[in-house]
Amino acid sequence: MIEILRYIVSGILLALVQTFIFQEVNIAWWIKPMPYLLLFLNIPISANKFGMLIGGFFFGLVIDAFGGSMGMHTAACVSIVYIKYHIDRYFLDENSMQLQGLLSMHEDYKGWQWYYIYVFSIVFLHHLVFFTFDYFRWSAFFTILWISFTSSVATVFFIQMFRLLTGKR
User: Fold this and answer.
1) Structural domain of residue 19, as residue ranges?
2) pLDDT of residue 95
3) Which residues in the chain show pLDDT less than 50?
4) What is the SS3 assignment for the chain?
5) What values do phi and psi take at 90, rounded to 5?
6) What is the pLDDT of residue 22?
7) How many domains does the chain have?
8) In this structure, what CATH number is given to the domain that contains residue 21?
9) What is the CA radius of gyration of the chain?
10) Which of 60, 72, 81 is nearest to 136 (CA)?
11) Which phi and psi angles does 42 have, rounded to 5°?
12) Can you give the pLDDT at residue 105?
């Protein structure tokens, strides 16, 4: 129960940071970081998948309500929770993680290279879904790829900064 409350409080704080800081600061038109994805990266591998889909839906709905993005965050959050399950099955071995005392992917599990490949793949897929809904036309295909890539790099940078600031390596 305390873990669930911790995720809810973390989600509220990350939603507030996203809507009141990162959506208001214009870094460049092609860089739109979304560090709230840290919440989804910290989902334990043994979490209830259906519950996480519902949680992702409501979390995205809150971001959309504050940011006025008309369902794009909701669609991207639900998509990434669904996709993350399959990425976790590829990257992670639940038994090995339990032996190491880890609940979610961590640099100590397979090394920093695998960790950043894992994080970047999840963040990039989230951004790809989000910006596909944002632009939603074939003529913007390369723009969607470019913005997804640059925003993913910036998001991974800010996620790492949050992890360093909170003391979670």
Assistant:
1) 2-166
2) 64
3) none
4) CHHHHHHHHHHHHHHHHHHHHHCCCCCECCECCCHHHHHHHCCCCCCCHHHHHHHHHHHHHHHHHHHCCCCHHHHHHHHHHHHHHHHHHHHCCHHHHHHHCCCCCCHHHHCHHHHHHHHHHHHHHHHHHHHHHHHCCHHHHHHHHHHHHHHHHHHHHHHHHHHHHHCCC
5) -80, -45
6) 80
7) 1
8) 1.10.1760
9) 15
10) 72
11) -90, 5
12) 63
Taking only the tens place, the pLDDT of each residue in 134-147 is 888 888 899 999 99
Closest CA to 125 of 34, 24, 22, 20: 34
**Separation between Cα atoms, residue 166 and residue 169, nearest integer Å:** 8
| Per-residue pLDDT, 80 | 93
pTM of the model: 0.85
For residue 2, the model assigns a pLDDT of 74
Rounded CA separation 46/134 (Å): 32
| CA-based max dimension of the chain | 49
Residues in the chain, how many? 169
- pLDDT tens for 100-116 read 666 666 666 666 788 88
Output b/e per residue, 48-73; b: 16+ Cβ within 10 A: eeeebeebbeebbebbbeebebeebb
